[in-house]
Amino acid sequence: MKLSTITCALLGLASEVAATALTYKLVANEKACFFATTKKANEKIAFYFAVQSGGSFDIDYEVTGPDGNVIMDGQKERQGDFVFTGKQIGDYKFCFNNEMSTFADKFVDFELAVEEEARVTIPSKQGSSPEQTSALEESLFKISMQLSTVTRNQKYFRTRENRNFSTVRSTEKRIVNFSLIQILLVIAMGALQVFIVRFFFQGARKGYV
């Protein structure tokens, strides 16, 4: 009976969520927009993004409501995690702008979620007091918040891992290019030394003759 009560509580606390998670390659001088639709007023909209690789790991973003007004925007941001209330019904536009880059392509990991906060009262057990039911509700909400924190930490560490890996690959390419240039310089210096020595010997022979 206790297990079924907790299960019903979890189902009641779980909100109706429509979410989309994508990784998009934003080429240089490109602006890409994505949409999330709300069917009711005052729905919660969650917006998360992180630049995984490319350039300085920054991007411009802009969020526009159904009426065309800008809700939030930012320039040269590496990542963001926002939740706001969609007061109007309709399509909310989320745009990423890479027009500041002339040649660097960027991979952007983002997630859009529309959540209807439907909070259902936990069914109380016969003989249980309202304080016990309230304590159960608080425990469930704490668990929900902790799960949300764990999810955000996982996203953060994933972003750091991808950025560090991109930095390692960039450093590796630079080391290889520097090594090739150094080898070519050594070969050129050796050929120049041989040419100079031969030039001196040929000049000495002519003077001796």
TrEMBL record:
GO cellular component terms, A-Z: endomembrane system; membrane
One Pfam short name: EMP24_GP25L
Domain (GOLD) ranges: 31-114
Subcellular location(s) of the protein: Endomembrane system; Membrane
Assigned keywords, A-Z: Membrane, Signal, Transmembrane, Transmembrane helix
Signal peptide range: 1-19
Primary localization class, coarse: membrane
SUPFAM superfamilies per record: Supernatant protein factor (SPF), C-terminal domain
Topology of the protein relative to the lipid bilayer: Single-pass membrane protein; Single-pass type I membrane protein
Transmembrane segments: 180-201
InterPro entries for the chain: Emp24-like, GOLD_dom, GOLD_dom_sf
Family the UniProt entry places it in: Belongs to the EMP24/GP25L family.
Protein's UniProt name: Emp24/gp25L/p24 family/GOLD-domain-containing protein
